[in-house]
Amino acid sequence: MAAAAFALAPLLCFGRVLALRALQLVLAAALVLVWGVATFDYVSLRLAADAPWLRLLAIMSAVILFVGIAVWSIEGLIAKKRQRSLYR
User: Fold this and answer.
1) What sign results for the dihedral spanned by CA atoms 26, 72, 63, 50?
2) 19: which of 12, 25, 28, 52 fits an S-S bond (Cβ 3.0–4.6 Å)?
3) d(Cα 70, Cα 10) in Å, to the nearest integer?
């Protein structure tokens, strides 16, 4: 069920501003609850095992940055939708 919801989430881009805000909220929640927690857990596990962890931290930071940019870029879509609705 959750996988289907995440797979269909990009379809919200074609909806109204409220749908875009919902997509933005879902991505921001995933950023913190999925990637942030996973990064902390994996790095802690590597540190406890005395294994190399800097590369893992760099990779996970890049993923977090990518999702953060995706959340931020939705603002541009919202601005375009609002601009179109003003003139129509």
Assistant:
1) negative
2) 12
3) 11
Task: Give the Cα separation of 88 and 82 in Å (integer).
Answer: 10
Of 9-13, 31-35, 75-79, which has the strongest mean pLDDT?
Answer: 31-35
- Number of helices followed by number of strands (H, E) in the chain: 4, 0
What predicted TM-score, i.e. pTM, was given to this entire model? 0.71
Integer-rounded Cα Rg, in Å, for the chain is 17
DSSP code for 15: S
- In this structure, the number of other CB atoms found within 10 A of the CB of residue 23 comes to 21
Q: Can you tell me whether residue 56 is helix, strand or coil?
A: helix
Which CA distances in Å does 67 have to 33, 57, 62? 12, 15, 9
Tokens read off for 34: 């999925």
CA distance 50 to 43: 10
